[in-house]
Amino acid sequence: MENKKNNLTWKIGGEAGFGIKSAGMMFGKIFMRAGYEVFDYTEYPSIIRGGHNTYQLLVDTRPVNSINKKIDILVALNQNTIEQNFSELNVGGVLIYDSDKAKILPAKLAKAQITGLGIPLTTLAKEAGGEVMRNVMSLGASLALIGQSLDIANKIVKENFSRKGEVVVTNNIKALKIGFDFVTANFKGQFMCQLLTRPANNNILITANEALALGAVAGGLNFYAAYPMTPSSTILHYLAKIADKTGIVVKHAEDEISVANMALGASHVGARAMIGTSGGGFSLMTETLGLVGLTETPLVMVDVQRPGPATGLPTWTEQGDLQFMLHAAQGDFPRIIMAPGDATEAYQMGHQALNWADMYQLPVIILSDKLIAEGNTTIPKFDTKNIKINRGKILTVEQLRKIKEYRRYKVVPDGISPRTLPGMANGFFIANSDEHDPYGFSNEDSQNRIEQVDKRYRKLEQFAKTMSQPLVYGNPKAKKTVVFWGSNKGVILDSYVNLPDKIKSKLRIMQYQYLWPFPAEFTKHILNNSKEILLIENNSNAQLGNLIAQETGIVIKNKLLKYDGRPFFREDIISALKNF
Amino acid sequence: MIEKDFNTSYKPSWCPGCGNFGIFIALKNALVELNIKPENVLLVAGVGCSGNGVNFLKAYGWHSLHGRALPTAVGAKLANKDLTVIVMAGDGDGYGEGMAHFIHAVRGNTNITYITHDNQLYALTTGQAAPTTDKGTQTKSTPGGLIEEKANPITLALSSGGSFVARGFSGDATHLKELLKKAILHQGFSLVDVFQPCVTFNKVNTFKYFFDRLYNLDKKEGYTTNDVLAAYKEAMVWGDKIAYGLFYEDKRPSYDKYLPQLNGPALVKRPMKVRNIEQLLKEFA
Ligand SMILES: Cc1ncc(C[n+]2csc(CCOP(=O)(O)OP(=O)(O)O)c2C)c(N)n1
Ligand code: SF4
Predict the structure, then answer these.
(1) Which one of A179, A311, B112, B140 is CB 3.0 to 4.6 Å from B85, fit for a cystine?
(2) What is the ipTM of this complex?
(3) DSSP string covering A439-487
(4) What's the confidence (pLDDT) of residue A187?
(5) pTM for this one?
(6) Separation of B49 CA from ligand 1 center, angstroms?
(7) Beta-carbon separation of B261 and A246 below 8 A
(8) Contacts of B82 in chain A (CB under 8 A)
C-alpha cells in the first residue's frame, strides 16, 4: 500500500486543565506498545489553569528523538488551538476539532488542503459520563483515522485510570469507542497517515529526568535533595515516589542553598548524594559548589536548563548555562561537566557521575535541558549489566589502624588522597571551608596553599586521562564537521538519517558528552582537519563555540543558534545541513 | 575518657577571656560525661570566631560556609544516625545568613544539637551589628545606632515547633555542661543559645552584664518545661532580668522516625550494591 508511511506527527492542544498532557502520554504509550518509536514535546506556559497547552507526538518506525515543525493531525479542543496551530498542518493533514467549542470556515480548510473533522466532543463526552473525557475521546477518533485498533488503547486507558476506580475506567473506555466509531462512520476514504506495522519490542517510554534518576538509583544513590524548579522537578517527584521502596532519603529542603549543603553533609559521612535544580537554583548552589571543591567531598549536581536569566522562560528549553557551569563559584578548583544527549545517555551518566564524584572527590555536574528532561522517548529497556560501583579511595578501619598519622589532604602524586568517614577511629580530619593543611586545619602559608591547589588539580588531570572523547557520527573522514552538545543530538542525528546519501557521505558530526575537562587535543585533531565547520547550539552566544576558541584557538564562524525557548525542529536542521 | 581526649594540636586563636572558651570546656566535659567517643562526634561549625573552634576540638569536623552549618548537619545525621552531630555557629552566622535554615531545622526536628555562640555582634569581621544586637546599639556598621528590632531566637524556636529550647551562659560552665548533656540526649532538634561575651568588641553585654541580670529557670519555683506559653513569657523578659536554662521540651518524634527507609542500620552502614531496577521499569513499559 503506497500510502503507508514511516512516521506521523500528531498534536493536541487546549487549555491547561483539559488533560492535554495525560492524553498525549497515553497516545504515546499506545504506539510504543504497538512497537513504534515515539518522541514527545510539550509546550505550556508557567500557569496551572488556562493558557495554551500543546502536546506533540512524533510516531516513527525508526528511533526518534526530535520533532518536526509540521504536523499531520491536529486535535483542537478549543478555538485557540485552531488559531495558533492550524498553519502547522501539512497538506493532506486532518484537523479534528470539538465542533461544540470551535469552528473553521470550509474555505480555509480547502485552501490549505486540510480535511476538517468536526466532532461534537463536548456533547458526546457528557453523554459518556463527563466533559473531561473529551481528550480520551479524541484519542479514539485519532486511532480510527490512522487505521489502528482499540485493543492496546483500551489496556492503556485501563492502566492509566485504574487508581481512580471502576466507573472512571469504564467511562473512558466508552469515550474511546465513541470517538473511534464517530470517525469510522463519518470519515470516508483512507487517510494518508496509515502507518507501516511494527513488531512488538522491549522498549520503554521515558524522559531523560526519569532515566537519569534511574541510572543513579541503579548506581547506589542513597541521598537526593532538591527544591522544586521546572524542568528539574520530575527528578524529585520520581525519586520521592520510590524513596521508601529503594531505601533512598529524598529531601525537599527549604531552598537550594540548604539542598546543596544537606547533600554535602550526607556525602561527607558516606552517602552517595545527588542534587537537582535548574539554573536559578544552581545560582543559589554556587556558593556550595566551591565548598565541594575545597573540601573534596563527592557530589553530583544536576542542572536541567531552561532559558534564563532570572526566572526566564520557566517551561521552555535552552542550552544557556554551559559557561555558567564552567565558571560558577569563586576561586580555582576542578570540576567535571557532562551533558547527556538523550535519555539513554542520561541513564548512563546517572550512575557514572556517582562513580566519578567518589573516585575523584570533586563536584560532577550533569547539564541537561527541558527538551529531553520532559520529553518522553522510546528506548530499549535499561539493564544494569555494565554498572559497577566504584567508591574511590575510602580507607577501612583496619587500614587506618596501620597509619601512624592520618592526613586527609595528604599531598599525593595523583592528587586523590584517601578519605575516612566520621565514625572511624583515628581518621579525624576537618573538612574545612578555609584553605587547610593536609590534616584539614586552617592554614594560610604560601607553600601549603600552592601544594593544596596543585594537588586538587592533579585529580582532574587523572580523570582527563581516562575520560571518553567526543563521539563522531557519520563519515569519520569527511571534511565538513558539525559540532554540538547535549539535547541537539536527537534532532541532528534524526535529520542526518533523512538526508540523501550524497550529502550524508560528506558529513561528520561531533558530539561533546564531556565539556570539562575539555578534550582539547581531540578537538584540534578533528577541527584542524575540517574544511568547513558548523556549530549548532540552543543559545544566543555560542557557548560551546567560545569554549572551543578558549581551549584550542579555533574560532568557528559558521553557527546555527536558536534561543527563542523552542528546540530546533527537523526542518531547521535539514535545511542547514543541506546548505552546508 | 577525659577532657584532654578532645584536644587537638592546634593552639586556640581566641582572645584571652573570650566567652568561647567556656562553651568549649562545657562541651568537652559534656561529651566526656556522656562517654561519647571523639570519632563518633561530627562537629559542624559556622564561620566566625566561634567556628574557628572546629580546629581546637578533636572530633570529625566540618567547617561550613557562613550560615550553612545547619543543613550540612541535617544531611549528615540523616545519612548516619549513629553519629552525635553538634552544630556551633555565631549569632551572625546562625540568625543572619542562616536564619531560614534555623527556622526550618527547628521545624524538621532532626536529632542534632545546635549551639549558638551569641555574642550579640559579628566578631570575626571586627564588630558589626548582628541580628541579636540590641536596638539602638552603635557599631561599625550602624554608627547612628541599630534601627532594627532584636531577633529573639528563643521565641522564634518556640513558635516554629522547637522540641528543645534552651539558653546557656558561658560564664556558668557547670550549668552549661548539664544543659548540653540534656540537649545531646534529647531525641530531636535541640537549640542552646549561649550568651558568649566578646571581650574585644562588645563593651555592653559583658560577663558582668549577664551576672547582674541572669536568673536560672531551672531553679524557678513552679516552672515546668512543658508549657509553651509559659516559656514564651519567660523568653520575652529582657532588661534588668534575663532568664536562662531550659525553656521548653517535648518528645515529638524526630524527622527520621517518619521515614520507613531509615529503620534499621544507619543509611551509610548498609552494603552498597548495584540496585535491581526491573520492578521500577514496569511503569515505563
Ligand atoms: C558569605 C559570607 N559573607 C560574609 C562573610 C564574612 N564573615 C565572616 S564571619 C562573619 C560574621 C561572624 O559573626 P558571628 O556569626 O556572630 O560569629 P562571631 O565571629 O561573632 O563568633 C562574616 C560576616 C563570609 N565568610 N561569608
Ligand atoms: S573577637 Fe570576641 S568573639 Fe572573637 S575571639 Fe576575641 S573575644 Fe572572642
Answers:
(1) B112
(2) 0.97
(3) TS-B---HHHHHHHHHHHHHHHHHHHHHSPPPEEEE-TT-SEEEEEETT
(4) 86
(5) 0.97
(6) 8
(7) yes
(8) 423
Contact B78 A251 (CB under 8 A): yes
Report how far ligand 2's centroid is from the alpha carbon of B275 (Å). Answer: 51
Fold of the CATH domain A206-380: Rossmann fold (3.40.50)
Nearest to B72 among A222, A265, A425 (CB): A265
DSSP A529: T
Instruction: Look over chain A and give the mean of its residue pLDDT values, rounded to a whole number.
Output: 96
Find chain B residues with C-beta within 8 A of A440's C-beta.
61
Cα–Cα dist A355/A386, whole Å? 13
Report the SS3 class of residue B127.
coil
Intrachain domains A4-201 and A471-578 with the same fold: no
Distance, in Å, from the CA atom of A550 to the CA atom of A553, rounded to the nearest integer, reads 6
State how far the Cα of A109 lies from the Cα of A1, in Å rounded to an integer: 27
Spatial CA neighbour of A243 closest among B275, B150, B101, B215: B275
Query: Domains of chain B (ranges plus CATH)?
Result: 3-283 (3.40.50.970)
For the residues A417-433, what does the mean pLDDT come to? Answer: 97
Please state the domain extents for chain A.
Answer: 4-201, 206-380, 397-466, 471-578
The best mutation among B54, B117, B119 to test binding of ligand 2, ranked by most ligand atoms within 8 Å of the C-beta, falls on: B119
Q: How confident is the model at residue A45 (pLDDT cuts 50, 70, 90)?
A: confident
Per-residue pLDDT tens digits for A482-534: 999 999 999 999 999 999 999 999 999 999 999 999 999 999 999 999 999 99
Ligand 1 shell residues, CB under 6 Å: B 46-50, 66, 90-93, 117, 119, 122-125, 130
Helix, strand or coil, per DSSP, at residue A248: coil
Q: Report yes or no: B22 at the A interface, CB cutoff 8 Å.
A: no
Between CA A179 and CA A137 the distance in angstroms is 5
The CATH number of the structural domain formed by A4-201 is: 3.40.920.10
Instruction: Identify the pLDDT of residue B126.
Output: 95
d(CA A211, CA A219): 12
The C-alpha cell of A301 is what? 549536581
The answer to whether B281 contacts A381, with C-beta atoms less than 8 Å apart, is yes
| Ligand 2 in reach of B21 Cβ (< 6 A) | no
Kindly state whether B60 is in contact with chain A, defined as any CB-CB distance less than 8 angstroms. yes
**Which triple of cell numbers denotes residue B6?**
578532645
Contacts of B260 in chain A (CB under 8 A): 244
| CB-CB under 8 Å, A382 with B281 | yes
Alpha carbons A44 and A53: distance in angstroms, whole number: 5
- The one-letter amino acid code at B285 reads A
Instruction: Tell me the C-alpha distance between A30 and B176, whole Å.
Output: 67
List CB contacts of B143: < 8 A, sequence separation 6 or more: none
A576: how many CB neighbours lie within 10 A of its CB? 17
What are A516's strand-pairing partners?
Answer: A337
Dist. CA B66 → ligand 1 center (Å): 6
A382 touches chain B (CB under 8 A): yes
Q: Which CATH class is domain A471-578?
A: alpha beta
CA gap A511, A338 in Å, rounded: 11
B275/A218 touch (CB, cutoff 8 Å), yes or no: yes
Confidence class of residue A193 from pLDDT cuts 50, 70 and 90?
confident
Share of chain A above pLDDT 70, in %: 99
